[in-house]
Amino acid sequence: MHDLGELRLERGARLVGKVTDPAGRPLAGARVRVAGDRRGGGGGAESDAQGAFALNLREGVYRVSAEAQGFVRTELEQVVVTEAQGGEVALALQRGGRLSGTVYQPDGAAQAGAQLFVYRGGERLGETRADEQGAYGLDGLAPGPVEVFVRSGDRGLSCRVPLQISAREQRQDFVLHEAARIEGRLTTPDGEPLAGLRVRAVELQGDVRRDAESDADGRFAVANLYPGVYRLEVLRRGQRPPSSRAAGPRSRAGRPRTYRAPRRPGQRSGRGPTGEPP
Fold first, then answer.
1. Could you write out the three-class secondary structure of the chain?
2. Taking CA 228 as the corner, what is the angle to CA 222 and CA 231, rounded to the nearest 5 degrees?
3. Does 202 have pLDDT greater than 80?
4. 99 with 124: CB under 8 angstroms?
5. Which end of the chain, N or C, is less packed with Cβ atoms under 10 Å?
6. How much is the pLDDT for 73?
7. What is the largest CA-CA distance in the chain?
């Protein structure tokens, strides 16, 4: 018989709450997520027919969020749960807008399997994939200005479109075009080419990252980019070489460079509700 040592049991702290719609009615089937501090841990639950949920947690401070189909995700921070008093929250979800339409290739054919990403201020609000007919649908979007990034499965075609999301369903088609690229050359301060270095283009308003490697002459081409403004990073074995520079627009030595990937005709906007570029 093995000695397992001393086992210490800790009392749990109970978090209860309710999820409702904009009219205050109980919202069943909402997904509730709880993330805690280092001591707290976390967990998940689903609201019942009365919109209620309960979780047994360790005492701590938590971030509680809830989401449901067709509603905007909501989150509460600094929710304190104690062994003595537990914790209680009320989560009211607002209805979100729905965006739907079709993604087209440059020749007007439907783009099957296109991927769509919706951002606001660098935060991804949602994503989806078009079906075999290029049709897509994405709901639960918070009303307000967004940017929609759309690309083909191989990233060779893309577009980037600013939109205003309303609290209702709206149709927006997208036309993809050949993706942008950034080309340049890496050299030492003496003009000698730098080969085999990794060049990373990082989009400043999203999480787009694309890599390329410099050839024997130091030349590189970062392809499959959305139109936008990018920061270029030069990496070797996970670190940026201190003495390298990129041929192109001037900047202070050692600082990341900013490049603007050009928009091709028609890339600023997709097809609007009438089928014409808005």
1. CCCCCCCCCCCCEEEEEEEECCCCCECCCCEEEEEECCCCCEEEEECCCCCEEEEEECCEEEEEEEECCCECCEEEEEEEEECCCEEEEEEECCECEEEEEEEECCCCCECCCCEEEEEECCEEEEEEECCCCCEEEEEEECCEEEEEEEECCCCCEEEEEEEEECCCEEECCEECEECEEEEEEEECCCCCECCCCEEEEEECCCCCEEEEECCCCCEEEEEEECCEEEEEEEEECCECCCCCEEECCCCCCCCCEEEEECCCCCCCCCCCCCCCCC
2. 60
3. yes
4. no
5. N
6. 86
7. 78
Measure the CA–CA gap between 118 and 149, rounded to whole angstroms: 6
- Rounded CA Rg of the chain: 25
Q: Which residue has the tokens 């191989």?
A: 154
Between β-strands 157-165 and 123-129, what pairing exists: parallel, antiparallel or unpaired?
unpaired
How is residue 278 written in tokens?
Answer: 């808005």
